[in-house]
Specification:
Radius of gyration: 19 Å
Largest sheet: 4 strands, parallel
Helix content: 25-40%
Order of helices and strands: HEHEEHEEHEEHEEHEEHHHEHH
Distance between the termini: 32 Å
Number of strands: 12
Strand content: 5-15%
Shape: globular
């Protein structure tokens, strides 16, 4: 498992521990073992492996957080290389293995779809790269291509395009909460951009669902079946916190402060998990207000 020390990775490790023996790849194995527990086996580099013959499955969560810093040239490179290079190294190890793992579950993001304005999209969407010049699409497209190289008669590949993950102690929601609790939250730009979200528990359960269902392969959207506009999202958050949420954040201010990274907030997608639902997965939190109440009450 890669990316095990992250916001979702730590929760997924806890969920997998009762039934699985984990080998965790980390740049700092000592720090990871303190956080995740000494019972796991730790690697500091894929160079420690000649193949993947002894593993049953690989879960690839690694990647530099895309919204942690302004998108300078250096940061763009870090975002890309942390996803592309490691994913392609994993696929190369699959190809070298005599008895490769039966499953690779690799992450991507709904940023694959680019800015869709008011249109809804699902996993059947076919991106025309000439018309999808957004940085997020380019990152996700090559990331997914790298993972699919592991596919063979012996290995199935599942890719989860993750939306906005809701959790009180990590991700975007944790960054939003201080302002909203002070009554300083509000819609971003015109508030009409789509927000495709998922409760943290549903995302963890989706990984386990795909791991345990050998008939599943291909792309699955990791977002709840009810995407919502930014305006309605902020209203729902304010309502659950019992705080006003009407102070708008102008698009020009975000562009000035964040540069191109502001597109993550100003643009959006209404993404539906059509294949995810068809696979038999059931969301515990399909509605936003119910997700907020469980997380914040």
């Amino acid at each position: 498992m890669t990316g095990a020390s992250g916001f979702i990775g730590t929760q997924l490790v806890s969920a997998l521990v009762p039934q699985h023996q984990l080998t965790i790849l980390s740049r700092d194995p000592l720090r990871a073992s303190i956080k995740l527990g000494a019972k796991h086996h730790y690697l500091s580099s894929l160079d420690e492996l000649d193949d993947l013959d002894k593993f049953d499955a690989v879960i690839n969560l690694a990647g530099e957080p895309i919204a942690s810093k302004r998108w300078t040239g250096k940061q763009r490179l870090a975002i890309c290389q942390s996803r592309w290079t490691l994913t392609e190294q994993l696929s190369a190890l699959f190809q070298k293995s005599t008895t490769p793992p039966h499953t690779l579950i690799s992450t991507s993001a709904v940023g694959y779809y680019g800015n869709q304005e008011q249109n809804t999209v699902d996993e059947s969407y076919q991106a025309n790269r000439a018309n999808r010049a957004e940085f997020t699409h380019q990152v996700c497209h090559r990331w997914e291509e790298g993972a699919l190289k592991a596919k063979s008669e012996q290995t199935r590949v599942c890719i989860i395009r993750i939306g906005l993950v809701l959790g009180p102690h990590g991700g975007a929601l944790a960054k939003m909460l201080p302002a909203f609790r002070l009554g300083l939250g509000g819609p971003i730009a015109d508030g009409e951009q789509g927000m495709s979200w998922i409760h943290q528990s549903d995302l963890v359960n989706l990984f386990i669902h795909l791991l345990n269902h050998p008939n599943c392969e291909g792309v699955y959207n990791g977002c709840a079946p009810n995407p919502i506009s930014n305006s309605l999202f902020t209203q729902a958050l304010g309502h659950v916190l019992n705080r006003p949420a009407f102070i708008p954040v102008p698009a020009f201010a975000l562009k000035l402060i964040l540069g191109e990274m502001s597109s993550l907030l100003i643009e959006g997608q209404y993404v539906l998990p059509k294949r995810t639902l068809a696979s038999g997965f059931e969301f515990q939190y399909p509605e936003l207000e119910g997700a907020f109440k469980q997380l914040l009450d």
